[in-house]
What we know:
By secondary structure, this protein is mainly alpha-helical. Helices cover 76% and strands 0% of the residues. It has one domain (3-86, 96-154): Ferritin. The chain contains six helices and no strands. The longest helix has 36 residues, at 3-38. The model is unreliable at 1-7 (pLDDT under 50).
Amino acid sequence: MSSHKKQHDGTLDMVTCLNGVLANEYALFTKTLNYHWNIxxxxxxxxxxxxxxxxxxxxxxxxxxxxxxRILDERPISTIKGMYSHMEIKDGQEKAPNAExxxxxxxxxxxxxxxxxxxxxxxxxxCETDPGTEDMLISLLRKHxxxxxxxxxxxxxxxx
Length: 160
């Protein structure tokens, strides 16, 4: 097998991973937007504003991932059906949960994506020939760590 064929196979493998990340980002974006629209309670204003910042950041992340797929000369998944078939993160419930549950759900989904990103970047076979994508994924990991920390900071525990 030629080195070009190996490199192309590696690129397709990475694109599959990136499309999986993109689908989970889309699911988290949609859930965050849903919660932004449906948040209620005494912290409505602050959480409504906070969630708007989070979904806007996730929209930028999705664009970055899709553009990376294009840089690799492939096509990102770009239909709802395609996203749905690749996502691991579950949709939100039809009935909006309370604010604390919303924040907890979003934090757990960020952790799911963090774990997905860690799995990809620690796979030497995937990243050794594509340092640009590896760097982008590590940057996304840091963004999700920060976003989950901010969510965790909003969650009320034991009346605190």
